[in-house]
Structure formats: structure tokens, C-alpha cells
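Question: I have long wanted to understand how a fold can be written as C-alpha cells. Here is the record:
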Amino acid sequence: MAKYGVDIRGAKVVSSTGGFRLIYDDRGNRTLDVLGVSEEIHREDIPDEFLDSRMILLGPILDEIGLETIRSIRGRSKAEVFLDPQGLVREIGPEGRIREVGDLGKTKTLCGLVDIIKPNEHEARLMVDHEDPFMAARLLVQWGAKLAVVTLAERGSIIAKGRNMIRILAYEILAKDPTGAGDTYAGAFITKYLEGSNLYHCGLFASAAASIKVENTGPDFILNLGEVNRRMKALAGG
């Protein structure tokens, strides 16, 4: 992380880190088997200087960031809070295999604590107990989030704000490894958002960046800004 210019002050050394073994079927459906469970991240683990940021991205993978920690961040910082909720709809099932569960009360609490929430289509369905991803995005906003972004894999993504709904297309590529696409989408979206771009361009930029991740295997790949912008322009129609 330091090699890429990430400020790692405050990084905590833990006895066990979270991790999964990922299995994909022919349709791209993913099964996760637990390899390790991280210690919980508490409010005192977060350096005060990080709370002065313009945006705080929370990306739990298995409930290591709880509601009280999120509530503390919300109360201590003026930053906007961006949540990828994947780790908050997971629990460990039989034989160490992850199963995903929804909780309407928890979802409504989360929406009241964050500014932007970004589940994928399956997570959104569980969180709001509704099959339609457009309605799921709308409900997440109605319950308190300023923005809801629901990613739809090869069908693109949806951005909801108030009563407005924006549809973002996916850039067509030969998919090799979808792991990390959501993280890439989130980082790219935040980049454009903090630059002051409109939500449509934020989504296009994020979709273009995620497409590069998906056509590469593993985390070590070149994410070229020029190529992202070229794909973004193509998605926008030229």
C-alpha cells in the first residue's frame, strides 16, 4: 500500500486478518469459504487525522466494522461516509462457508449513518427485501442515504438520489476475474465525486475503471487513467 502512495499511519497489526477462498461457477456466481476472521475495528483504532478527510470509505468484509464504530465515525467527523456493505450482510454458516442474510432494521440504521451506500444487486435485494434493484436503490435513499449505488455486474449500475434514478452502462470486455471490481468502482466513483463531477460522469468513470479490473486477474494490474477516460467517453456515446 505504501508503494502506491497510501498513507498507512494507524495501520493496526492484528493476530488474524480476514480472508476467503473464492469459488466461481460457470455463471459467475461466487461462493466464499472463510480462511481467516479479522479482529473488530474499534473507534480508537482510527487516527484522528483521518477523520479530517473529505470522504471516509468503509469496506468491511465480515462484520469487522460494527454499527457502533460507524456511529462513532459519523459523530466525530464532518467527512462524507461511503459504505460498501458487503461484510455487513455476511455470516459464517456450516463448515465455514459464508451465507448472506438481510436485516431491515440494520439496513435502515445504516442508511441513517452514511451518505453513500453501494451494495451489489444481490446484497441490495437482501438488505431491503425486494427483488427489483431500482426499487432497492430508491428504498435505500428513502431510508436516509444521500446516494445509493447498486452495481449490476455486466448490466452496469444504478445511482439513486432523491427521486432521480441514473442508469450507467457497463463497458463490454472479456471478463476474467470479477474479484475487486466493486472496490475499483468505489474508488473511481469517489475520485470523480470529490472532483465535483456530476453523478452520471461519476458512474461512467467508475464503470470504465471497474471494466479494467475485471479483464485482469488478481490485484496487481495497470489502471491507466488515459484508458479509463477513453472507455468513459465510449460509454457516454463518443
Notes: The first strand starts at residue 19 and ends at 24. The domain at 46-168 is CATH 3.40.1190.20 (UDP-N-acetylmuramoyl-L-alanine:D-glutamate ligase). Helices lie at 67-76, 104-113, 121-128, 133-142, 181-194, 199-214, 225-235. The two ends are 35 Å apart (CA to CA).
